[in-house]
Design a protein that fits this description.
The protein is an alpha+beta fold and about 160 residues long. It has 3 helices and 5 strands.
């Protein structure tokens, strides 16, 4: 038995039908771009809505648009350079993953993976994600900047 995944058009149509109150100000022009652009645009809006059901629908849309590898929104707040102290810290997440999760009744971006500190394995850690540098070599967490190794591939 095979389970059919919903199409991009199906995800967009169900979001408009089921979450119209969140998307009340969407314009026809917003739907005229390529499917991936529309999926990201509506997906980010649903994720930020504050509603758990809308969050789940938006996350599915972002996963479809990114083919399983979700990135934070393309906003200046997320993409910035590492701080001056970043080079002094010899920590690296390898491999790592960026996840969009629902915690404390709101959406949060978290980064995690196998943390290596001074070449010693410190097992898996998850941190709230604050920033990622433009080349995705460093990530800023609530603790410090962490160097990023190889990103995990997610099977979708």
């Amino acid at each position: 038995m095979t389970i059919a995944r919903p199409t991009s058009c199906g995800l967009i149509a169900s979001a408009l039908r089921d979450h119209g109150e969140v998307l009340h100000d969407i314009r026809v022009d917003d739907l005229a771009d390529e499917e991936d652009v529309v999926l990201r645009r509506i997906g980010h809006r649903l994720v930020r809505s504050g509603d758990r059901a809308a969050f789940e629908a938006g996350r599915r849309m972002l996963e479809r648009a990114a083919n399983g590898r979700i990135h934070p929104p393309p906003h200046r707040r997320w993409w910035t350079g590492p701080g001056k102290r970043a080079a002094d810290l010899e920590a690296v997440l390898h491999p790592y993953s960026i996840e969009l999760v629902w915690k404390a009744e709101k959406p949060r971006w978290e980064i995690g993976g196998r943390l290596w500190l001074h070449d010693v394995d410190h097992d898996w850690r998850w941190y709230p994600l604050l920033h990622v540098d433009g080349s995705a070599e460093w990530a800023r967490t609530s603790i410090c900047w962490i160097k990023l190794g190889r990103r995990m591939q997610h099977a979708v």
